[in-house]
DNA sequence: CGCGCTTTTGATCGTCTTCAACTTAGGTGG
DNA sequence: CCACCTAAGTTGAAGACGATCAAAAGCGCG
């Protein structure tokens, strides 16, 4: 991606896109601050940044005692945890409307995962102090935070139940359905993950993931419609899942 | 897929043990209401029940629009989700200090799991209205709820990373360490789960779980110290995990 | 056009599942 | 107290499935 060229060395790999205008946020309804009146944003001590991250860039690292949470406006972010042997396990995939880094609200904690953009990501960078400050004057924000955490719990449970259970083919099929749910564009098309990411999601090897995706393509359960863009036959995938999970 | 919950031999009977006295709760420090002043409990509209559930009893069922959350004082509770084929997947094991059913705080939702006591369980049954009521006058309770949810997120992530990754022997070893962490008695001993529950935790068949536990017993990584009570060699289990997760 | 990367495919091996038989433990009634 | 009964746990053998190692094919980019 062109962004990496000509950047000052202190800047890692994301691009400042100006200060956020929360009151006119395009997806305001699903964001953290959707219930707040416009004037609440006027006297914030610290600005909310509006940023772009190209694929592969790191939002934050596991164990780092950061001071910011991130609200995803566009794109997909993976949360991963590194094993002792250096292997990575992806524990969540989050898209538009999700907020990551909320574990920092527990005093003295660091980020629990490493967060990486898997696509072009636009997000709001919210200083923890701002969040705490706003919460003080707007108790209803507390509910929004709780809903965000509940969402993450639900996602994690879905992950355990559907992406980490049963045969590999079924898991990959479920992953494709998940991508369609949280990461599809206006045509309903999705951007596939690299095979090793798929593998790190469902807990198989990248070869197995590759074999299954190749097989799906041959059987026309997925097909390419443009560069980096695939259409999936949700109906047929559902059937495959039903067929292969039952005891014949 | 293996069938679970075949016959509803589960009993829903539980025993009322009187109204809770939160101010003198033995494990008050870890409970939901630990920060609240004693007089806050005086004029509650609805009582907080203090109950006992024998092993196998159901706290609540997935999809049921209940009006109560449960705070565990003693014992172990499993949260499980049923597959279309009737097979069950355990997505969490919770012990002393955990609160279950908090998903009801989202308006109009039902329980997301079925909660079953795996041991003798003592818990406080808290009407949702009471929780909401207390929260209104004690904003700090909001933090406690958030911490509870964050705990569940962390548990779920740990589950994905350690109990649903790698070879079966490693997973079972991790499960034993988890039981020791959240469910050990004052001697550090644990109550083993039935083999089919172990299987439903780590995502293998009950036969595989059985083989591995039998092998652990033969190698003296676990041994029985009393009826329903086993001692585990955490050190040796850790070594086994390190040994078997690395690529030789 | 060729270089490095990801993806695909092949062949072999180890692990886990499956189905079945057998053993053990706990509980009930004679 | 023992005989019996049932449910839970253990073990065996066969085969399916995914891991592993290795090599070839495809693709983006300079």
In short:
The structure is a homodimer. Chain A is α+β, with helices and mostly antiparallel strands and about 250 residues long. Helices cover about 35% and strands about 20% of the residues of chain A.
Give a verbal description of the structure:
2 copies of one chain form a homodimer. The longest helix of chain A has 24 residues, at 140-163. In chain A, α3 packs antiparallel against α6 and α4 (195-202) packs across α5. The first copy, chain A, contains 6 helices and 11 strands. With 248 residues, the first copy, chain A, is α+β, with helices and mostly antiparallel strands. Chain A is elongated. In chain A, the strands form 3 sheets. A 5-stranded antiparallel sheet of chain A has the order 1-2-9-4-7. The first copy, chain A, has a 4-stranded antiparallel sheet with strand order 3-8-5-6. A two-stranded antiparallel ribbon of chain A has the order 10-11. Residues 1-11 of chain A have low confidence and may be disordered. The first copy, chain A, folds into 2 domains: 2-161, Sandwich (Jelly Rolls); 164-245, Arc Repressor Mutant, subunit A. Chain A binds chain B through residues 81, 83-85, 89, 91-92, 102-103, 105-106, 112-113, 139, 142, 145-147, 149-150, 152-154, 156-157, 159-161, 164-166, 203, 242, 245-247, and chain B through 1, 81, 83-85, 89, 91-92, 102-103, 105-106, 112-113, 139, 142, 145-147, 149-150, 152-154, 156-157, 159-161, 164-165, 203, 242, 245-247. Chain B binds a DNA duplex (30 and 30 nucleotides) through residues 167-168, 194-196, 204-208, 210-211, 213-214, 247.
């Amino acid at each position: 991606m062109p962004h990496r060229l000509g950047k000052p060395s202190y800047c890692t790999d994301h691009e400042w896109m100006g200060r956020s205008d929360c009151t006119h946020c395009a997806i305001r309804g699903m964001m953290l601050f959707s219930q707040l009146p416009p004037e609440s944003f006027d006297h914030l001590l610290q600005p909310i940044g509006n940023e772009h991250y190209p694929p592969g860039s790191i939002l934050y690292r596991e164990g780092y005692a950061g001071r910011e949470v991130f609200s995803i406006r566009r794109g997909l972010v993976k949360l991963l945890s590194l094993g002792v042997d250096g292997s990575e396990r992806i524990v969540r995939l989050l898209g538009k409307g999700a907020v990551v880094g909320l574990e920092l609200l527990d005093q003295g904690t660091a980020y629990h995962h490493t967060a990486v953009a898997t696509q072009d990501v636009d997000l709001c960078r919210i200083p923890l102090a701002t969040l705490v400050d706003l919460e003080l004057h707007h108790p209803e924000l507390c509910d929004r935070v709780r809903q965000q955490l509940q969402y993450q719990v639900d996602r994690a449970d879905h992950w355990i139940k559907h992406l980490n259970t049963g045969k590999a083919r079924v898991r990959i099929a479920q992953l494709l359905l998940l991508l369609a749910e949280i990461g599809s564009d206006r045509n309903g098309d999705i951007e596939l993950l690299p095979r090793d990411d798929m593998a790190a999601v469902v807990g198989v090897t990248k070869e197995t993931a590759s074999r299954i995706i190749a097989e799906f393509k041959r059987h026309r359960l997925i097909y390419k419609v443009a560069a980096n863009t695939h259409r999936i036959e949700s109906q047929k995938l559902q059937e495959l899942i039903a067929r292969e999970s039952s005891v014949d």
